[in-house]
Design goal:
- It is built from 21 helices and 5 strands.
- The chain is mainly α and about 475 residues long.
- The chain has 3 domains: about 130 residues, 3-Layer(aba) Sandwich (Rossmann fold), CATH 3.40.50; about 120 residues, Serine Threonine Protein Phosphatase 5, Tetratricopeptide repeat (Alpha Horseshoe); about 170 residues, Orthogonal Bundle (DNA Cyclobutane Dipyrimidine Photolyase, subunit A, domain 3).
- Strands 3-2-1-4-5 form a 5-stranded parallel sheet, with helices on both faces.
- Helix 1 links the parallel strand 1 and strand 2.
- Helix 11 packs antiparallel against helix 12 and helix 16 packs antiparallel against helix 17.
- The N and C termini lie far apart (about 60 Å).
């Protein structure tokens, strides 16, 4: 132990329990937790940036309850950390590792510079179950297909979850900026008020979500998670994204559910490992976030015009394909989208509309509160066919048959598309409060008489485009 303060740099790990970097810092001496609105944060889309700010505020409140506090600063990460080292006399900085290219580039630069300054810089494992370089194929490479990856880790022990550490406060706190005045919610505009009631922010809320799911949802999870109208998922993606709960805590809850004979528990664990797989891939092949993972797709004639009329209709939930429109509107009202629906809207954009997956990836980055750079990139490339372990190029989801199968009574579609009902529910009407004013949309508008691209002709056009490229 030392009396010199230790800096703990929080980024996407807004929790006290099972936080390796925070525990390591607390074991060394008084801890000064710091959150920086830095160059990576500034690049986030509207919803993720706003939700990150909410998570940081909740974490600060939790730290204060534990006798600590959260120092907030804005600026280039290295500059801010160097200033705090100078102000506090700290000689150590701890953080939990992230794996996407933007975060890795920042962190590597920070670590090298701090070490040059004579400051110990320690990064820890805390964002995923298994570090990407610890999962290797029999020949020593990385996994490109999910199922072998799952088989390689399903029997592994990720270690026990760490208990909340005792946090010693420093003799004096450095100055902190006002997070609420930084405008992280500015781009959300009026949408913030609509989305906010659908969120569960902070560590306590995340633990509550996990507990409720384990008590009432996990037994039927394998089947219920595909039912669009049913609340059959855990909703933990939001909290895992900001580290308000650890993947390891969720893993052990799932393992206990397996021991209790709950049928959906293994499917839940597979979803946690799917998240790991995304970070495994973004670490080993960082180009996945910006260009086709499979080079043979580089010559494919995607539409790259994000303002093309059919793409605008897709963004606004006005394609005339009701299940696609319902999903897009759900995202505007709640900040999330049902997992099955994500596959449908991605397939429709990239296959029926033949539009580049990057258009969808960027739109989701702007709109999703559970946006994760690795999962978002992998999901879009999986849906388009250009990514690792992707859906086959010839598999073109038919939105109409998918809706019949996963929303047979139309409840999901009526819940989110006001124009489909004479007396639409509040959920559907809320979309018009969340949508940008410039769209000038009203529930009194007529719903499109026909889809911008119907299921049959869209599939035919997509298959012809693939065949002409030799796929």
């Amino acid at each position: 132990m030392t009396e010199t303060p230790i800096l703990y740099w929080t980024r996407r790990d807004f929790r006290i329990a099972d936080n390796p970097a925070l525990c390591a810092a607390a074991a060394r001496g008084p801890v000064i937790p710091v959150f920086i609105v830095d160059e990576v944060v500034e690049g986030h889309g509207a919803a993720p940036k706003w939700r990150l700010g909410l998570g940081a505020e909740a974490f600060g409140a939790a730290l204060r309850e534990a006798g600590s506090d959260l120092v907030v600063r804005r600026g280039v990460a290295l500059d801010v950390l160097r200033a705090l080292v100078s102000e506090t006399g700290a000689r150590e900085v701890h953080w939990n590792r992230l794996y996407d290219p933007a975060a890795r580039g920042r962190d590597e630069d920070v670590k090298a510079a701090l070490k040059t300054d004579g400051v110990a810089a320690h990064s820890h494992a805390g964002h995923v179950l298994f570090e990407p370089w610890t999962v290797e194929t029999g020949t020593g490479g990385f996994y490109r297909v999910y199922t072998p990856f799952w088989k390689a880790v399903r029997g592994r022990d990720p270690g026990e979850a760490l208990k909340p550490p005792r946090l010693l406060a420093p003799e004096s706190w450095p100055s902190s900026q006002d997070l609420s005045g930084m405008g992280l919610d500015r781009a959300m505009d009026r949408g913030a008020a609509v989305v906010r009631p659908h969120l569960a922010v902070g560590e306590a809320a995340a633990q509550g979500r996990l507990g409720a799911f384990m008590a009432r949802g996990i037994a039927d999870y394998a089947e219920a998670r595909d039912d669009l109208a049913r609340d059959g998922t855990s909703h933990l993606s939001e909290n895992l994204t900001y580290g308000e709960i650890s993947a390891r805590t969720c893993w052990w809850a799932g393992r206990r559910a397996i021991e209790d004979g709950k049928a959906g528990a293994e499917t839940f664990l597979k979803e946690l490992v799917w998240r790991d797989f995304a970070h495994h891939l973004v670490f080993h092949t960082p180009h996945i976030v910006e260009r086709n993972w499979r080079e043979e797709w580089d010559a494919f004639p995607w539409n790259e015009d994000a303002d093309a009329p059919e793409v605008v209709a897709w963004k606004r939930g006005r394609t005339g394909m009701d299940v696609v429109d319902a999903a897009m509107r759900e995202m505007y009202v709640t900040g999330r989208m049902h997992n099955r629906a994500r596959m449908l809207v991605a397939s429709y954009l990239t296959k029926h509309l033949l539009s580049h997956w990057k258009i969808g990836m960027d739109w989701f980055e702007d709109c999703l509160v559970d946006w994760d750079p690795a999962s978002n990139a992998m999901g879009w490339q999986w849906s388009s066919g250009s990514g690792p372990d992707a859906t086959p190029y010839f598999r073109v989801f038919n939105p109409e048959t998918q809706a019949e199968k996963f929303d047979p009574h139309g409840r999901y579609r009526r819940k989110w598309v006001a124009e489909l009902s004479s007396d639409p529910p509040e959920t559907a009407l809320s979309y018009f409060d969340a949508a940008p004013r410039g769209w000038d949309m009203s529930p009194d508008d007529d719903y499109p008489a026909a889809p911008v691209v119907d299921a049959a002709s869209g599939r035919k056009r997509a298959l012809e485009a693939y065949e002409n490229r030799g796929f």
